[in-house]
């Protein structure tokens, strides 16, 4: 047996077996930096950043979990969902209802909320079985509105516009509240979900999803039961949304139906596209990009309003429409100029450094 | 009974408006099979352009109307040229996502310029258009809508049936490759269908604005309500869009009138899911759907 040596960047394609193609880290260099990144994330970040920044980072983490789920659906299976925001809301409400009515503990409520959301999602995924392509998009658009309506109007269950207040989350007796303890919960969950997603797309299921995305007729011809796999992909994607929503509910303490509108769904789509379709790490970049963009825009509008540049002209600069515009612009620009997203840009940057000084 | 008749009339007129709004959508889908999620924003663009011309520039109604239509035509052309043209041949996902992005871009621009408040046009419709008979009251707007709508329907019907450009458009809708090989300028057809669709959308936007007042959020919500309408009528049938619109309109007003006003806005989507499950090609759609 060949002695295992440390592997650095190969100067060519030396893959001999299919296992080599499937490997997550091509070199030990990448594995090393991933480990360093994780250590910095858990041992340094929560102790040095300001509370507000920690809150933003937590929001990024939650968004990243949901975005990974959407990427499995859009990027790997090629089905578009416009209802991801609503499914996120279903998860949040499911966790809130479980925690208040049956006193479900945090560790049970979050996955249970994910499973409930997956079931709800699969109901709206059924039309995709009969028809291909854009029909699922339309069905999920309908799902978005129907779920929003149910969340507001099923008052006996969701308390309508009043919203639900959750009890403090605790894990086997240890209460978790505040940004710092939630940081650990959120990012351990994110690492776990990323790990599951990366490995999922390497299995038979992931390959079936990719086959459906690339050519559904050929996939059917190869004996992949398309309807079942589409529904499974939809269920998994909704599970991620519900899981993230449940953590969000515990973190925010109170839940109302307002945030889970179509804008949120579009925001998730923007994350997936900007991050890179069919790239798990890309969804995380996308979540960082979109959340950071919101913060930058907030800072910018505050700055411009306070500096008085617009106060005299009577021009009222508002965050919400500006945000809407910039999101749309970002989606359009990325689709037109870099449809494979930030992940591709990152790969290009990396490889040009690797080949330095002979990059071209 | 009077309540019923009034609901019936309201339903038909609201539905006719939906149908009118859906017409542009169907036109784009028919020729380039793009699901346009920015349709509501195209409606809003027309409505706000007209508003700006009438109230800010103080133009008389007729020139303002014509300039708006011309502006929408150009807008549709530019949108196709700048955003959709580079994506010809790309996967459908990107095209759909692009229209989602465009929608939120347009919405952002309109909100930045006009704000989210409700605006209204000055009253300019002659009052003889209104019909008042017994308890039944039809305001002049609805009559005007009907006239405008029927005119446009007739004009486009004739355009598609007899003009050479209309025939080209139908041929591209039918089979892109065959049309290309017979010498049809497919790209021009795409550009033209976007331009015409934007024109129709702008016109519907103005009519909607006269009836409901002009508000970015409401108009873009109507752009999404186009989906139940076109799925019901059949994605590629212009006449189906009108009939689907009327059915959805009736359904909405009757639910609002007899069941509960809050259910009114969701009913179209519940119907939509139901249709997708039972009769996905709609009432008048082409039944060549791949079941994969």
Give the terminus-to-terminus CA distance of chain B. Answer: 48 Å
Query: Sheet with the most strands of chain A?
Result: 2 strands, antiparallel
Query: In which range does the helix fraction of chain B lie?
Result: over 70%
CATH architecture classification name of chain A: Orthogonal Bundle
Q: Given the C-alpha coordinates, what overall shape of chain B results?
A: globular
| Spatial sequence of strands, sheet with the most strands of chain B | 1-2
The structural class of chain A is mainly alpha
**Uncertain runs of chain A with pLDDT below 50, 5 residues or more?**
none
What does the main sheet of chain B amount to?
2 strands, antiparallel
Q: Whole-number radius of gyration of chain B?
A: 19 Å
Describe this structure in words.
The complex is a heterodimer of chains A (360) and B (292). With 360 residues, chain A is mainly α. In chain A, strands 1-4 form a two-stranded antiparallel ribbon. Chain A has a single domain (53-164, 176-354), classed as ABC transporter involved in vitamin B12 uptake, BtuC (Orthogonal Bundle). In chain A, β2 (169-171) and β3 form a beta hairpin. In chain A, α13 crosses α14. The longest helix of chain A is centred in the last third of the chain and has 28 residues, at 280-307. Chain A is 72% helix and 3% strand. Chain A has 15 helices and 4 strands. Chain B has a two-stranded antiparallel sheet. Chain B has one domain. By secondary structure, chain B is mostly helical. Chain B has 11 helices and 2 strands; from the N terminus they run ααααββααααααα. Chain B is 74% helix and 2% strand. Chains A and B meet through α5, α6, α10, α12 and α14 of A and α4, α9 and α11 of B.
